[in-house]
Specification:
CATH architecture of the largest domain: Alpha-Beta Barrel
Strand content: 25-35%
CATH topology of the largest domain: TIM Barrel
Oligomer: single chain
Helix content: 10-25%
CATH superfamily of the largest domain: Glycosidases
Shape: globular
Strand order of the largest sheet: 5-6-7-8-9-10-18-17-12
Number of strands: 43
Number of domains: 4
Amino acid sequence: MRPINRNFLFFSIAILWQSLTALSASAQITKISDGIQITAGDNYISILAINGSAFCIGVSKAPAAQINSVFIEKAKAATPYTVVSATPFYGIKTAYGKLLVNTKTQTWQLYGAAGSVLINNGSFSVADGEVQITTPSKGLLYGSGNKSTKNLEKTGSSSTTGNGITDVPYFWSSAGFSSLGVSVNDNKPATWKQDKNSNNIIWTFAGKAGNLYLWPAKNLYNAASGYVKLTGKPKLPPKWALGYLQSQWGWTDSAYIANVAHEFRSRKLPVDAFIIDFEWYTGFPDYFMKKEGSDGFNDFGFSPKLFPHPAKQLTDLKNEGIHFIGIRKPRLGNKLFLDTVRKNGWLNSPDNPDADRDLNFNNAGLRKWYGKKSKPLLDAGVETWWNDEGESYYTCYYGWNTAQNDLLASARPNQRFFTLNRAFSPGNQRFGYCTWTGDILSTWSSLNDVPKDLLNFSLAGMYYGSCDIGGFSGSHDSPVTKEMLVRWFQAGVFFPVMRSHSNIETTPHFPYAWGPDAEVAMRKALNLRYRLLPYIYSLGHEAYQTGAPIMRPLIMEFATDTTVANKTDEWLLGKDILAAPLLNEGGKRKIYLPADTWYDNETGRAFKGPMTISVDKALDEVPVYIRAGAIIPLGPVVQYTGQNTGMALELHVYPGKNGNFNMVEDDGSTYNYTKGNIRTTAFRWDDKTKTLSWKATGPYTGNNVYKTVKIITGKAIKTAKLTQNGKVQF
């Protein structure tokens, strides 16, 4: 046996010890929940795998786990990963990519599943009370909301809420990734901005730690899919919420409500809900009330003027297919109630409890008390709530909806939740939550802004957007006009939620109150909305299953077309219906049709894009174009969503290329769909053989399931039974 060279052995041990000492000085790896924590200089860096879709890089001055945030849905299972340890690179690898930190340079890298570098040389720093994480990016940025700019392209996010405005700490980059930031305090959310010179994106987190969630996303569909895996699926509202919702401030008494219901039904104007402002519970608003409140203010009751017999009246309305939604404010006016919440420290400003009357819905005790006080209203027949003015802190609407959702779950188990809210934050889509665009003016300019806001909502994780159709308020010099209101109704057909509203000083936006020609035009728009419900409702299921929004900017489908990068005056409902309503007076406009074949919905004429066309439309006409290969299911004209006529489904097929559509049916009111109790009919069009085939799957067999189908392609019409499997050739 050859003797060991002692000098060589001592030299090798010395080198090994020096390497281990250097490694220990530069980085230490600790296994923590969902990933690892390493040191880089004097910073602690967490690298985590979250919800099977995203990475999280956490930066702090002290050892820290994942920040607890209501923005992020709690994981149901751990995400598989492997640890990467190749000095000086440390991180984790998953099925969707890997995230590494270079402890030598104190930079980080994000890779896609195939190994491509999506972010190179990201950086981080921790100063007193603030964390910054920098993301180099040369891409276009989308998705943070409508506060910082109404453009689709973004350069930053203020992460704040206001009257009909919301910015969220999120964006998608066309460089191929998405980011969402979480600070230690959800009510002081992270912000980001793009440096004009370097294009670097600088994230800022108030506090001593920050979490930046990252996931590879080639396109906006991938971005949306990752977003809902991380923050939660958008639950479907009850089906009736996708009908027409009639709101007003200024319902005068019980006879007035009954008369409006009679006018809608007798004139064949479809409607599914009446939404009533202050007057449903109080005779006077609380805007000028003192902080102490007022004796006898009716926070949790019905106004005897409007609802002398609330249970009977609301039952009568519901028997006519009309649900009741009442406004709520995030504060109280009753002096005794205010004394109670002050005593318990349940106001929004616990350090200064006399500062205001706004409630702190982040407090579990307050939520339980609020629910107990609200329960008699549900018992009497209130369907749901219209939550207004809750922007005093970023998560107000989340806590508020938590209280209301908990109440509904206890009072009406398994009934779907739905509310109207004036702002949102990440994760609120988990409720079945709608946001409207606030107290907008009755102007053409405001009408133009609505699709900008709603498309930005769609890209920021708010799936059910709406507005005050016709505008909340006009002026004596510039009130809403008949033409403006009609055009607004026509645009509203293609919003996720269709709701009109007006203030107490204006003519109500009831279709019959604006003259015979306006009534005809608005009835036609409402009939189209209700005929589209099988299509729109199926898009709601698609949103729940995949994260794809119902109302989509053209850039989602035509990502390389620079013409549509910021286009908001036309949009897609799903991927196949292009809505280009009149947003200016006069009936004329130009419409851009991207690269594809498009069919005019009124005439059937085909257009080959990309091209720009000019249209001149009568008052009752709205420009709509259907994409080649589209399969559009239409229902019969009904007066409310629950009306079952037993008539056939009408299926329109647009030839020119192969196509498909999954129509989903369920009970429309419970959460049984989350357990798979649905019926999905997968329609397929083979353009070469001119054959429509379908296959139905799923256990749902309710009375509302379509049993026959009338198929229309061009001028050809065929009928068939809608059995489990079928085929029709033209």
